[in-house]
Amino acid sequence: MKSANLYSTPDDAETAFYDAIERGDLEAMMATWAEDEDIVCIQPNGQRLAGHAAVRESWRHVFENATRLHVRVSHAIRWSSALMAVHNVLETLYIGDDPTPHGPMLATNVFVRGANGWRLLSHHASTASEPPAEPPSGNHPPRVLH
Length: 146
What we know:
Layout (H helix, E strand, L loop, with lengths): L9 H14 L2 H6 L8 E3 L5 E3 L1 H14 L3 E12 L3 E12 L6 E13 L2 E11 L15 E2 L2
């Protein structure tokens, strides 16, 4: 699976991932994922999806059966190295034009850097019992992994 998109940072890949969700664009969604066949997506229902075919089918089902989705991402904590980045974020979901927030959900997004830039290797979202406390500075700056 080749993608014409080159994400120069993990943040760029993450922005494209959430943008694809909001647009319900399956091809754009799949373009954010690593070419590695071992990609993993865990939706809030808890099912583990491994590989491009399973991940694609799951998101196809979401996009076909849901009204427009808007995901507000906040409370980001980021770790990074030269070839891998991990982002833990709070997701708040809005469905269609309904201003009622759904969630919160906690998500961990793992990105890898390859020849074609940064790509999503794993997305794990689960329902949070309550929103985490706001970090003192809003968002934490990326921490470098050794």
